[in-house]
Amino acid sequence: MTEEDPLAAWRSNPFFVLEVSIEASRLETERAGQRLLALLAVGAADSHHYDTPLGPATRNADSVREALQLLRDPNERIVHELMANIAQSARDRAGENFAYLWNASEHALGWRVKWPRP
Amino acid sequence: MASAVTAIAIACYLISLYLRGAAAGQYKGSVQVISRFSIWVGKIFALCFWIIISDNSGPAAIALLPLLVWLLGPKIVLNRVVIPLGSLRFTYSMARFSGLVELLTDSGVAALYSAIYLVRKSPSPQDIDWLTQKLKHVRSPRGAGVVAAALLALLRGDRHRARCLFVVADSLDWRLVPATPRVIARNWLVADAVERGNWRDVIRLGRRGRYSLRWSYAVARMGERLIGDPQGCGDGLLVMCWMIAPRRRAMLPMLRTALRAPRARKHPAIEPLQTAIEPPPGAADLPGALANLAHVLRDKYIHDGQSFAKAVHDLDGQVACAKTRALVQQRLLALGARHDADTVLFALRQRLSAILSPILESAPHLVGENARGPILDQAIAQARGRLFGDIEAQCKDYDHKKSREITSEPIAAWEMWAVTRDCAERLIGVAPGAADALFQLMWVRANNFAVFQQNKGQRHILAHEIYSWLYRHSQGDPSASALLLGNARRSAA
């Protein structure tokens, strides 16, 4: 997790990574995982990105494998089920920006070099 | 006339020697600060010298005119001519041999201007490595050297280290930091805080009374309007701040947004920023409580400790309620798991604490002074343990270097201290009650490290910065406080 993205760890919940419902059976999660691994292997355009109630995130083959591994453990699965069950209001607020966000600070300081960002 | 010219030339040369020596910190082995008076005396001598030459020989005076401009206004020449038109090595050489000017107050200035050259161009890794090597050999880096190191850290992609170094440079005594690095450090910290949405920091950094700087002050005033701070100014003052600040075109969109934001009513009974956001409504179930927490975390710099504590408290309540326990038991049965509900709920709390812990480190204002539940307590304990561990490891490194008498490069010593200081300040922010324990953990080692840097490495300003920081946090230990005050005074004598 990074300082700039406080919800990154939460977004990597296995149910979000695999894009399956928390009620999905073990067979369904395995199928979803294998399908994603195949898409990632061929470099399908949409396979690297997924949406969550907390905003968009990215995945790779390792994160998919890790998600599958976590959901095979029933105790871990229940914890992740609870954490993935977020009310709709979070999704509604995902695009809200309370304050003015400045994504081009370098230019404001007259710099040409891009600052490192996560 | 010839004797007068010779006398002035010798005087200029002697002043030049004095300033060079003072810049390297060689006089009396203490923190030397060149007064503006000395600088202007030197400039006036150079000007007199040129006028005398122009009286006697016009062509010679014309030939010497660029040199005179360079001596009188080196910053302008470097910023407007050398950096846009020159190369990295040319910029370094020109900045290094700028002569009898304020640039000599800091021997890291050549590296600083070279780093400015790099951030304005598109540098290659070889250029960055070349300048890093040059900076390592600077004998007595001061504010400019620290800012140059921060810019190089940014160019290498290490934003955290850059931030630590900029914070140190921004908090150094103004007499030790020339204007250019001071402005770069402050402006970068403000721009970084804006980018992260941390308007509290923007206002804290920008509004510094007599130590305010034009650009950061203007951004801070716009920030007050944007977040609805009761201290926010009217449209007229806001436009005036924008007009006197540099880089107005880049700031125009922010000004427009700030002008559109309504001005908050002044209410002295309410703390600034606490009216900016209403606390999230109470959650009816666990998904609602999680959504509330996610909302607070996403705008973590806008919310105050009260709304954060309420969101976590609601979550605590929902995790502990009978409905959640029944749900967990039902799922345990359905999945054929071996654990009981308590174990699963404990793991859930741990998982949530692990998410909250690094967030508290970066936004310690969220901790607040309200009653806390198990999740928040656990998150604070995790952050505190991690930061104490980091600081202890760094203090051991200080001991190791001192016991082996390892004199690392001056800029590396600054970087070590900047990172330690950042960890210590985050720890105090997350767990204010741990300030005394932190001081006892680090003061002897950090003090000894500073003494070693001062005596062996002749790094008086670094030592002074360490003593001063420790002294500010030594209120719980009068004897240590007296010793540190004495050290700080001796290092700055």
N to C succession of SSEs of chain B? HHHHHHHHHHHHHHHHHHHHHHH
Figure out the total of helices of chain A. Answer: 7
Number of strands of chain B: 0
What structural category characterises the helix and strand content of chain B? Answer: mainly alpha
Q: What proportion of the residues of chain B form beta strands (DSSP E)?
A: under 5%
Query: How much helix is in the residues of chain A?
Result: 40-55%
Strand order of the largest sheet of chain A: 1-2
The biggest sheet of chain B amounts to: none
Mind describing the biggest β-sheet of chain A?
2 strands, antiparallel
Write the layout of secondary structure elements.
The complex is a heterodimer of chains A (118) and B (493).
Chain A: H1 8-11, H2 14-18, H3 26-42, E1 49-52, E2 55-58, H4 61-72, H5 74-84, H6 88-93, H7 105-108
Antiparallel strand pairs in A: 1-2
Helix pairs in contact in A: 3-4
Chain B: H1 2-23, H2 36-56, H3 58-72, H4 74-85, H5 88-96, H6 109-120, H7 125-136, H8 143-155, H9 159-171, H10 179-195, H11 199-206, H12 214-226, H13 235-244, H14 248-260, H15 286-298, H16 305-320, H17 322-335, H18 341-362, H19 374-403, H20 410-430, H21 435-457, H22 460-472, H23 478-491
Helix pairs in contact in B: 1-2, 2-3, 3-4, 4-5, 4-6, 5-6, 6-7, 6-8, 7-8, 8-9, 8-10, 9-10, 9-20, 10-11, 10-12, 11-12, 12-13, 12-14, 13-14, 15-16, 17-18, 18-19, 19-20, 19-21, 20-21, 21-22, 21-23, 22-23
